[in-house]
Design a protein that fits this description.
Structural class: mainly alpha
Order of helices and strands: HHHH
Radius of gyration: 18 Å
Strand content: under 5%
Distance between the termini: 51 Å
Number of strands: 0
Number of domains: 1
Length: about 90
């Protein structure tokens, strides 16, 4: 039988996971925001570059997602490629 403190422990683990995800989301959005500023690329410029890749996001949606820290991974990777940052995710061949 679980102890009385088991629900409290589970709640703490859930909070730790939530904090962990928030921290990594914050880091990802800070990273892309820094790279955009470093290159002098506005959110409008990014939206235009993404359109060339077939990704249709508006300046406002990009701004909102970056400012709220809710930028999805697929959009982060597309944004990186559109500004010339490449992440090699191909399988390694022997």
């Amino acid at each position: 039988m679980p102890s009385r403190s088991e629900p409290a422990r589970q709640a703490r683990r859930d909070l730790d996971r939530h904090d962990f995800k928030l921290e990594w989301s914050r880091r990802a959005t800070e990273f892309i925001d820094f790279e955009l500023r470093r290159r002098g690329i506005t959110y409008r410029d990014l939206a235009e570059r993404l359109t060339v890749l077939g990704v249709h996001e508006t300046e406002a949606s990009i701004s909102r997602q970056i400012n709220e820290g809710t930028l999805p991974t697929w959009l982060l990777l597309a944004a990186m490629e559109s500004i010339g940052l490449y992440l090699d995710v191909s399988p390694h061949r022997k």
